[in-house]
Amino acid sequence: MTKTLWILPILLLIHLFSYGQSSDEKEIRRLEQQEVAAIQQADTVTLLKLWSKDFVVNNPYGQIVTLPQILGFIRAGKIDYTTFERITERVTIVDNVAIAMGREIVTPEKATEYAGKKVTRQYTDVWMKTKAGWREIARQATIVNIDGMQSQQ
C-alpha cells in the first residue's frame, strides 16, 4: 500500500511534465535524436533534410564550417563515432526559432580527432521553422572533458 502511495505522485508528475511540453518542443527533441542517428550512420540524405542549406557550425575544434565542409568531413570519416549520446537539457522556442541546449558524450573513431577516447561536450543547436518544417540553421559545440581530463579550450 505504501509503495502505491509513492508511485501515484511520481506518475502524476511525469504526466504533467510531458503534457507541459509543447508539440514544437517535442518535435525538436525528436529531431535532435534523429540527427544523432543520422550522424552515426553517416546518413547524409537524412541530414540534408534536417539541416538548412545555410547551416553553419562552430565546431568543437574552434572552426566555423559550412554545410559542404561538414558533409566532406562525414564522407572523409572525420565525423564518425562508435557511441553518440545527446542529452537535450532545454528547448526554448521563440516564434519560429527553437534553441536546444545540452551535452553530448561521444566516442570518436577512425580519422576523427580523439579517436577511441570518450569526449563530453556542451552544445547549442538553433532550429528555424520553415514552410517545409523545422530545419537546423546553426550549431555550436565545446569540448568540456576528454577521458576524465578537463579541456583546455
Number of strands: 7
Estimated helix fraction: 25-40%
Question: Class by helix and strand content?
Answer: alpha+beta
Mean pLDDT: 89
Instruction: Profile the largest sheet.
Output: 7 strands, mixed
What is CATH's topology name? Nuclear Transport Factor 2, Chain: A
Query: So what's the CATH class?
Result: Alpha Beta
Number of domains: 1
Regions with little confidence, pLDDT below 50 for 5+ residues: 15-19
- As a whole number of angstroms, the C-alpha radius of gyration is 18 Å
Examine the secondary-structure arrangement and name the CATH architecture. Roll
**Pattern of helices and strands:** HHHEEHEEEEE
Q: How far do the termini sit from each other?
A: 53 Å
Summary keywords:
153 residues; alpha+beta; Nuclear Transport Factor 2, Chain: A; 4 helices; 42% strand
Task: Provide a compact summary of the structure.
With 153 residues, the protein is an alpha+beta fold. The chain has 4 helices and 7 strands.
